Amino acid sequence: MPNEILKTIKSSIKNWYLQLLIGILFIAVGVYTFMSPGAAYLSLAILFSISFFISGLSDIIFSFSNKDELDNWGWMLALGILTFVTGIILMIHPEISMVTIPFIIGFLFMFRSVAGIGIALDMKSYGIKEWGWMMAFGILGMIFSFIMIWNPIFAGMTLVVLTGMVMLIIGFFHVMLGFRLKKLKGKLDL
Predict the structure, then answer these.
(1) I want to staple 56 with a disulfide (CB 3.0 to 4.6 A). Which of 2, 22, 38, 83 is the partner?
(2) What is the rounded distance in angstroms from the CA atom of residue 112 to the CA atom of residue 137?
(3) Are 60 and 175 spatial neighbours (Cβ–Cβ below 8 Å)?
(4) Residue 62, Cβ neighbours under 10 Å: how many?
């Protein structure tokens, strides 16, 4: 086993430039996201549609492959079919996806925030002193989820900004990793 790990490390070091290229690619996509937020938002909408398609297909395959083990496999199949068809509709009409992303995320955050407030109240009843912070985060989550639902344009641009920031961070990480692997290669003199 140690030999396999050493071979993997040596292979990574020999191809250190691949990490650098990946980093540059991520940085370029991150910069593009900030330079062209409309196009980036359309790309997010398309990825959102594809995720519904793949998720529905996965649920359909899972339900059929586990129909003998699961008692209520038909519900999973129905959900899979619904999600699959929704994905197809969203891929055919990306404008629908662009309109719905902020609402779906807004409602998801709202439900999670309500759950967070409920959990904070439970913590208070158990005598946990830090329940106030949990309550504050739950309330902040509610406020931001209402903003996302009320103003979907703001929500859409927020998604684009966050996506661009994540791309830049991942890109810088990979660039640094590439250079660290190059330095390690020089030390090991492979």
Answers:
(1) 83
(2) 11
(3) no
(4) 15
Residue with tokens 């967070």: 116
Residue 5 corresponds to which amino acid?
A: I
Q: For residues 145 and 115, what is the distance between their CA atoms, to the nearest angstrom?
A: 13
> Based on C-alpha coordinates, what's the Rg of the chain?
23
Q: What is the pLDDT of residues 118-172, one digit of tens each?
A: 888 888 887 877 788 888 988 988 888 888 788 877 777 777 887 788 778 888 8
- Across the chain, which distance is largest between two alpha carbons, in Å? 62
Kindly tell me the sign of the dihedral angle through the C-alpha atoms of 43, 45, 51, 56.
Answer: negative
What per-residue string of b and e applies to 1-11 under the rule 16 or more CB within 10 Å gives b? eeeeeeeeeee
0.70 exceeded by pTM: no
